[in-house]
Amino acid sequence: QNEKIVVIDQINLPEAKTKQMSSILDKLGLERKKCLLLDEGENRNLVLSLRNLQKVRYSRALLANTYDIVNADILLLTRAGLTKVEEVFSS
């Protein structure tokens, strides 16, 4: 897989379970990659589900910094996160 940027529609987790998030990353082929997930807004269940995954970092798209983006092997964005990144970095 040569894609460095992966855009998904959204991530809605009914409860904060690391196993659910790990399963999603596995289905996307990202389970062993250093990922930065950018989403817009606060998603408490997503943040809690990611905190035990060592190679995955989470940031709100508005707060994304250049170092985290360049340091990640894969940039995983939700559609809302992509829209916000475009707004932030286009100005």
If you had to describe this structure to a student in words, what would you say it looks like?
With 91 residues, this protein is of the alpha/beta class. Helices cover 38% and strands 21% of the residues. The protein is built from four helices and four strands; from the N terminus they run βαβαβαβα. The chain has a four-stranded parallel beta sheet with strand order 1-4-2-3. The relative contact order is 0.26.
Keywords:
alpha/beta, 91 residues, 21% strand
Structural class, by secondary structure, is alpha/beta
Q: N-to-C SSE series?
A: EHEHEHEH
Shape: globular
| Rg, nearest Å | 12 Å
What is the count of helical runs? 4
Strand order of the largest sheet: 1-4-2-3
Helix percentage range: 25-40%
Q: How much is the average pLDDT?
A: 90
* Low-pLDDT segments, ≥5 res: none
Q: Number of DSSP strands?
A: 4
Q: Roughly how many Å apart are the termini? A: 31 Å
Question: What does the largest sheet look like?
Answer: 4 strands, parallel
Beta-strand proportion: 15-25%
